[in-house]
Amino acid sequence: MEYQSLVTIVPWQFIFTIINLFIQVLIFKKLLFKPINSIIEKRQKLADEKIRDAADAQAKADALKSQYEQGIADAKSQATQIIQDAQKEASARAEEVVRQAQEQAVLLKSKAEAEIAQERRKAVNDAKDEIGGLAMDIAGKVVEKEIHEEDHRKLIDEFIEKVGDAS
Predict the structure, then answer these.
(1) What is the pLDDT of residues 81-118, one digit of tens each?
(2) With contact defined as beta carbons under 8 Å apart, do 127 and 166 qualify?
(3) What pLDDT is recorded for position 63?
(4) Rounded Cα gap, residues 134 and 125, in angstroms
(5) How many angstroms separate the CA atoms of 66 and 45, rounded?
(6) Helix, strand or coil, per DSSP, at residue 10
(7) Which of 15, 27, 111, 128 is at a distance of 20 to 30 A from 153, taking alpha carbons?
(8) Distance separating alpha carbons of residues 72 and 91, to the nearest angstrom
(9) Nearest 5°: phi and psi at 7?
(10) Which residue has the higher pLDDT, 88 or 137?
(11) Tell me, what's the pLDDT at 155?
(12) The predicted structure's pLDDT at residue 157
C-alpha cells in the first residue's frame, strides 16, 4: 500500500498549483499573447493591404489591357478604312483614265473621219476637174472632125479609160 501514498492529493499543494497555473496563464497572456496577437494583426493588415494593392494593380492592368485592345481594334479599323479608301481612289482613277482614253479615241476617230471626208472631197473635185478637162478635149475633138459611129465609140472608150486611170 505504499503506492497509494504516492498518488494522494494534498489540498494545499493542489490549490497553490492551480493558483500558480492561473498566474502563469495571466503572465503569458499579458507578456506573450498580446504582443504576438498584435504582431499577427499587423501582419494580417499588411497582407490585406498587399492583397488590396495587388487587386488595384490587377484592375489597372485590366483597364490598360482593354485600352490597348481597343487601340488595336481602332488601328485595325482605320487600316481597313484606309485600304478601302485607297481602293476606291484607285478605281476612280482607273475609270478616269479609261474615260479619257475613250474620249481621245473618239476624238482621233472623228478627226480621222474628217480627214478622210476631206480627202474624198478633194479626190472627187480632182476627178471632176479631170472629167471636165476630158470632156473639153472630147468636145474639141468632136468639133474638129465629123463624128462617125465608130469614132464616137472610140471617143467613149478613150474617155472611160482616162476616167478609170484618174480614179
Answers:
(1) 999 999 999 999 999 999 999 999 999 999 999 999 99
(2) yes
(3) 94
(4) 14
(5) 31
(6) coil
(7) 128
(8) 28
(9) -95, -5
(10) 88
(11) 72
(12) 75
